[in-house]
């Protein structure tokens, strides 16, 4: 017990000294760095360490072919930014290297980075608990006292009555703090549950269906690694797969495609709607006050993916409307195409549905895109351009904003709500590199399964790397939240917390 007590005191002293040093260092910073730089540093650092591990670990083709450093770094950046552009064939990588790519996609996905931002928001509101510690005898973070329950009930009744003009007092701060904590655990549970379920289903399918299992066996791929890699990539909407041909080799495995389709939607376009449903469902059993606060005060919570009720509902309609439109056009134009040759009607339907689901950010494919009609490719480009939370239905974020907009002249664009994510997109669709498309045939040309970027010069690949990192400017929720956390809206750095050093 003495050793534990001494260690505890030493640890507290170390933490206190560290905070003091960080605070002093923060005060010496003359100006804040743009929040985009924080996220840029995060992704660049992760990509760099990913490159180091990919470099150290040996590829499968260690004797015949070793990827160049620029290609390894390009792959690392592409996996971290879930851009899914490739300059080497995926079957070059060993099982250990595939695990590295899994980690990069996992911590680079939009949902994961948003959880980091939500974690900063939790820290930001932690000080609010200290302001109201006198309301409870126990630890404020547990919030179990009957007095606090009465405060929550009063705040909830205020929300129900529609009174939005009351200034935030200490009890509302506590309620907001607890609600953000609850939201963080909901997102974390959602993040883990969906992917664990996906890995289990894919693994089970591979164990039961010999045709899919034989594909991996012939390619020398580990079934468990393939299951995890495919699930993480699909959920993160990265589009990378351990096979050179992407999902073309599994186009007849309709069961596998059906397993992956929900992963595509749950990890991107339908995430806000599913998250709102989870908050509502869990609120029925526990944390009712926090749940109602999150559902009714989305703008005050400030979590980008938690959309208002109407927007979340219309988003579902819009997403499936786009899918249905693409599905009808794809089936009508490609039903008898070479890409779907050898499939029965059921397999063609599932394959067409899977292909159209992937045009909005996932980027996995069961057909050779270069063989599709030009009109369909144009449609796919339009779908890739649209942000994931696009809604072509009238949406009001909250009552005050709606009242302001209602007084303006009606315009069509006011009923089109675009998300803050960029239109650059990160789908990763590619038409491949085929020698048949050369204007001047070369007898030494070899067909490759990687994208056209694989044939770019080193300078061109560096430009693409810069573009992938620049695209993070469209997804700076984590960095923006970190900036708010350190700024506090007053233009002064909160030097008490170490992440503020980088703002």
From TrEMBL:
GO cellular component, one term: plasma membrane
Keywords per UniProt: Ion transport, Membrane, Transmembrane, Transmembrane helix, Transport
GO MF assignments: monoatomic cation transmembrane transporter activity
Membrane topology: Multi-pass membrane protein
Record GO biological process: metal ion transport
Record localization: Membrane
Positions of transmembrane segments: 36-57, 69-86, 98-120, 182-208, 220-243, 255-282, 312-331, 366-386
Family statement: Belongs to the TrkH potassium transport family. HKT (TC 2.A.38.3) subfamily.
Protein name as catalogued: Cation transporter HKT6
Source organism (scientific name): Salix brachista
Upper taxonomic lineage: Eukaryota, Viridiplantae, Streptophyta, Embryophyta, Tracheophyta
């Amino acid at each position: 017990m003495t050793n534990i007590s001494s260690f505890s005191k030493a640890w507290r002293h170390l933490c206190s000294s560290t905070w003091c040093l960080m605070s002093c260092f923060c005060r010496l910073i003359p100006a804040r760095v743009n929040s985009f730089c924080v996220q840029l540093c995060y992704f660049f650092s992760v990509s760099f360490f990913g490159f180091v591990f990919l470099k150290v670990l040996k590829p499968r083709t260690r004797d015949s072919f070793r990827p160049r450093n620029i290609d390894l770094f390009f792959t690392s950046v592409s996996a971290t930014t879930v851009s899914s552009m490739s300059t080497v064939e995926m079957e070059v990588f060993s099982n250990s290297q595939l695990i590295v790519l899994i980690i990069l996609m996992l911590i680079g996905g939009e949902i994961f980075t948003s959880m980091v931002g939500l974690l900063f928001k939790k820290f930001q509101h932690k000080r609010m608990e200290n302001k109201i510690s006198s309301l409870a005898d126990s630890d404020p973070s547990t919030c179990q006292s009957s007095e606090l329950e009465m405060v929550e009930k009063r705040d909830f009744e205020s929300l129900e009555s529609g009174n939005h003009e009351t200034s935030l007092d200490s009890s509302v701060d506590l309620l907001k703090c607890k609600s953000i904590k609850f939201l963080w655990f909901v997102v974390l549970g959602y993040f883990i549950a969906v992917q664990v379920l996906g890995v289990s289903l894919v693994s089970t399918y591979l164990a039961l269906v010999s045709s899919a299992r034989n594909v991996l066996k012939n390619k020398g791929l580990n079934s468990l690694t393939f299951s995890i890699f495919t699930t993480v990539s699909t959920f993160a909407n990265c589009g990378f797969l351990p096979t050179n041909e992407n999902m073309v080799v599994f186009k007849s495995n309709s069961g596998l495609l059906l397993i992956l389709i929900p992963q595509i939607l749950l990890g991107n376009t339908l995430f806000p709607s599913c998250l709102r449903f989870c908050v509502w469902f869990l609120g029925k059993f526990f944390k009712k006050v926090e749940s109602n606060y999150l559902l009714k005060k989305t703008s005050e919570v400030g979590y980008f993916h938690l959309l208002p009720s109407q927007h979340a509902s219309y988003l579902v309609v819009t997403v499936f409307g786009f899918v249905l439109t693409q599905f009808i056009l794809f089936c009508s134009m490609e039903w008898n195409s070479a890409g779907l040759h050898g499939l029965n009607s059921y397999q063609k339907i599932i394959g067409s549905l899977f292909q159209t689901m992937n045009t909005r950010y996932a980027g996995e494919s069961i057909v050779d895109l270069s063989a599709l009609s030009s009109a369909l490719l144009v449609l796919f480009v339009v779908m890739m351009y649209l942000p994931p939370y696009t809604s072509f239905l009238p949406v009001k974020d909250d009552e005050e904003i709606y009242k302001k907009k209602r007084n303006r002249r009606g315009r069509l664009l006011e009923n089109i709500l675009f998300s803050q994510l960029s239109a650059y997109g990160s789908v990763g669709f590619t038409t491949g590199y085929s020698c048949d498309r050369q204007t001047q045939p070369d007898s030494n040309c070899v067909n490759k399964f990687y994208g056209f970027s694989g044939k770019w010069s080193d300078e061109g690949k560096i430009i693409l790397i810069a573009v992938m990192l620049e695209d993070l400017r469209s997804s700076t929720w984590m960095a923006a939240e970190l900036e708010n956390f350190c700024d506090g809206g007053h233009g002064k750095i909160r030097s008490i917390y170490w992440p503020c050093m980088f703002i």
